[in-house]
Amino acid sequence: MRSKHFNTNNMKRIKILVAVCIFCISPAFAQNLKVAVAANLQSVIKVLQSDFKSKTGIMIEPIVGSSGNLTNQVKNGAPYDVFLSADMTFPELLFTEGFSAKKPVVYAQGSLIICSSQDIGFENWERVLLTERVKKIAIANPAIAPYGKAAEEALKRKGILDNIQSKVVHGESISQINTYITTGVVEVGFTTQALVKDPANKNPLYWKIIDPKLYAPIEQGMVILKHGATNPDAEKFYQYILGPAAKAVFEKYGYHVQ
Length: 258
What we know:
CATH topology of the largest domain: D-Maltodextrin-Binding Protein, domain 2
CATH superfamily of the largest domain: Periplasmic binding protein-like II
Largest sheet: 5 strands, mixed
Strand content: 15-25%
Helix content: 40-55%
Order of helices and strands: HEHEHEHEEHEHHEHEHEEHH
Shape: globular
Structural class: alpha/beta
Oligomer: single chain
Strand order of the largest sheet: 2-1-3-10-4
């Protein structure tokens, strides 16, 4: 009798355990879509996230960082589904090394600006950087941040990179550069139009678009990673980013789209 009672209790426990497991893996409890997002899109992704959820009911979880650092995280096994990079180089690298099933595509083109919380005048910005008035210049790490790389290219083309090198303060990403600029930690920084186009930014800023002829085009690439290759939600988000609603958001924040 004890054995029968014991077996009956065990069966009840097993049934409850199975029911709990099925309940937890149901769509209502499915994990959010994990999207690795370049730091220059920090403010933009919030708008895209809200709009995408309102249209599909799917919630994305943005992981924001420099494109280079996010790439390294993917290589080290980070379970990201989609990658929105600030360039094409890093997504193409992931594709070449087998971390994505299909080639990346360009979803937007960025433009570099010089920016300050002070009205120091940017008509001849290269001359301003050489003056005593500018003591610190913020540039994202060019090795991992495409906009930092573009800034260095522009400074080289102007022939002043060596002259201002002692003033340069590097940041891990554009979001860190934006903090340096808006808090006045630096007099000047190189960043994206998204900073000055963001309605949430209430700080007065002074800025100028850097001539795009001074640096290689900043073509921002997107790719579905292997972790998201079999996830239909990843494909939905991918198509959404290439669609008219997302393009309108990118344009609002100063990006160029086709």
